[in-house]
Amino acid sequence: MIKITDHKEQAISRLLAQYSDKDNFKSVIEGIAEMVQDSEDDFYPVLELLDINNATGLWLDLLGSILGQKRLGLGDAIYRSLIYSKIGRNTSNGTYANIVSVFIALTESTSITFKELDYASISLLGNSLPDPTVQDLLKEYMQAVVLAGVKVSEIGYQYDNPFIIASLTVLNPDGGGFSSLASPTSGGQLGTLFA
């Protein structure tokens, strides 16, 4: 929400040329615009309380109850992400964009691997480890986003340096294989699968 702070100036700038030099008419328009500005100045703080990005505590609980998302004893930040995912679940039509946006809201991942596994089966891997409470809800929530008949088979976390066994002739630059005694921190990392 963007607060408008110049109702009076906008109203005057929109006057037709034939009225711009009429002082009485301009005064009426300025008076009305000032009342509108006063109303917005008074009401804007209430609007900010109901903005999901700014809401906290009971105000966030109110928004969650309107959408049908329980708090589950979570803090405001995690509860806010559940509310965003609930909006996505409520409005989803099962597209790739819907699935990814809800997954991002739940995991805060910046990199996502989306794979079609088998007929009507998908896998979602993100690069951010979600809160343990959210991990327990991920599969149920993501299943509510996809189309009927599509199964969310895998949901997990992938490291930036995944473990990959490269063939003898082709080295894979996207991941590492085994480490060695000389360099124990080299090589790839194994991810975590939640569901």
Describe the SSE topology.
Layout (H helix, E strand, L loop, with lengths): L6 H7 L9 H27 L7 H11 L8 H16 L4 H12 L4 E5 L4 E6 L5 H12 L7 E7 L34 E2 L2
Parallel strand pairs: 2-3
Antiparallel strand pairs: 1-2, 3-4
Give an overview in words.
By secondary structure, this protein is of the alpha+beta class. It folds into 2 domains: 7-49; 93-195, no CATH class. The chain is built from 6 helices and 4 strands, in the order αααααββαββ. It has a 4-stranded mixed β-sheet with strand order 1-2-3-4, covered by helices on one side. α6 links the parallel β2 and β3 (151-157). α1 (7-13) packs across α2. The radius of gyration is 26 Å and the shape is elongated.
Outline:
The chain has six helices and four strands.
Uncertain spans, ≥5 residues at pLDDT below 50?
Answer: none
**Structural class per helix/strand content?**
alpha+beta
Proportion of residues in extended strands:
5-15%
Return the average pLDDT rounded to an integer.
Answer: 83
Distance between the termini: 37 Å
